[in-house]
Specification:
By secondary structure, this protein is α/β, with parallel strands linked by helices. It is built from twelve helices and nine strands. The chain is globular, with a radius of gyration of 21 Å. Bound molecules: ligand C2E and magnesium ion (3 copies). It comes from Kineosporia mesophila.
Length: about 300
């Protein structure tokens, strides 16, 4: 590292830029340690659970698993800060494996504690989807823990635009047939064709936050049209990034049934999610529960 930093070309960098380059270089090698087999103290990955709710009742229907890196110097890093580095180090499948394993282990623990088995959806990278062994691995992991396939939902992102000859089509077909629901994430930001929705076993469209924020006149028409299409194709819609009651009400009036966003809850630690969302056994009580009522 001393040699690289001492190189003449580095002098062309502004000091702040140089520090940023050094920071990214370090973080990149730490990503390799984090997901590789080396045992340095570079922190660990943790999962946050963000409740997914039925809009009209406020009932929690499940959660999305969102990964965080508890970094020894930088604190809690969000995916935007490190997923690019995971990808450039070709560690996408390793990351997904860690997240899946964590989530399934957690689900088994909740089951053992007698908590309700609400499904958790896990985001997958394109590399995992294109790995022909994914379906077997996921189904084997569920079987080892005696978990029903219905507890796991998978999110594929619209940006990945999987091709017809991609192994992902077979993989998702196998998982869908086994009872694992597939969501199309970030819907409305890319160029998904009807043919694509037909070819992959997608059950739910997750409307991207950018489509509902702001929910102005133009966006309202768009959401209305997407909803009409979803009804025709027998797809559910879940709107992401709902932050205000107005947004929620407007989405409901457009026919959207499910949502996710800070209005309902931020992503929670496993313990917080279990104590709040999973502990609400009376389904008529909306989430979050009125102040003073929670355990
Ligand atoms: P995503 O799958 O679209 O996840 C939704 C993102 O929106 C999350 O960001 C969530 O914290 C955020 N969000 C939820 N509600 C609101 C809201 O009301 N307002 C605002 N402003 N944001 C909201 P996060 O956790 O930073 O994740 C970013 C992206 O990183 C995810 O987007 C997903 O594409 C990726 N990601 C996260 N966890 C994983 C993972 O475990 N594996 C993989 N492969 N990708 C992941
Ligand atoms: Mg997602
Ligand atoms: Mg999303
Ligand atoms: Mg999104």
């Amino acid at each position: 590292a001393a040699k690289a930093a001492g190189g003449g070309r580095a002098l062309a960098f502004h000091p702040a830029m140089r520090a940023e380059v050094a920071r990214r270089f370090t973080l990149s090698s730490q990503v390799r340690q984090l997901l590789g087999h080396e045992t340095f103290d570079v922190g660990r990955l943790e999962i946050r659970y963000q409740p997914l709710v039925e809009l009209h009742s406020g009932r929690v229907i499940g959660a999305e698993a969102l990964v965080r890196w508890m970094h020894p110097e930088h604190g809690l890093l969000s995916p935007d800060a490190f997923l690019g580095l995971v990808n450039s180090n070709h560690l996408d499948t390793e990351l997904d494996a860690v997240v899946l394993n964590d989530v399934l282990t957690q689900l088994a623990q909740w089951r053992d504690q007698g908590l309700p088995m609400l499904p958790v959806s896990v985001n997958l990278t394109r590399d995992s989807l294109e790995d022909a062994r994914l379906a077997d691995r996921v189904l084997a992991a569920l079987a080892v823990l005696s978990l029903p396939t219905s507890v796991l939902h998978l999110e594929i992102t619209e940006h990945d635009q999987l091709s017809t000859d991609s192994p992902a089509q077979h993989t998702l077909g196998v998982l869908d047939a086994a009872g694992v629901r597939v969501y199309l994430d970030d819907y409305g930001t890319g160029y998904t064709s009807l043919e694509y929705l037909h070819r992959f076993p997608i059950k739910v469209l997750k409307l991207d936050r950018s489509v509902v924020t702001p929910l102005d006149a133009g966006q309202v028409h768009l959401v209305g049209a997407v909803n009409a299409m979803a009804v025709a194709l027998d797809l559910e819609i879940l709107a992401e990034g709902i932050e205000t009651p107005e947004q929620r009400d407007q989405l409901m009036s457009l026919g959207i049934r499910y949502g996710q966003g800070y209005l309902f809850s931020r992503p929670l630690t496993a313990a917080q999610y279990a104590q709040t969302a999973l502990a609400v056994t009376d389904e008529s009580v909306p989430f979050p529960r009125p102040a003073g009522e929670s355990a």
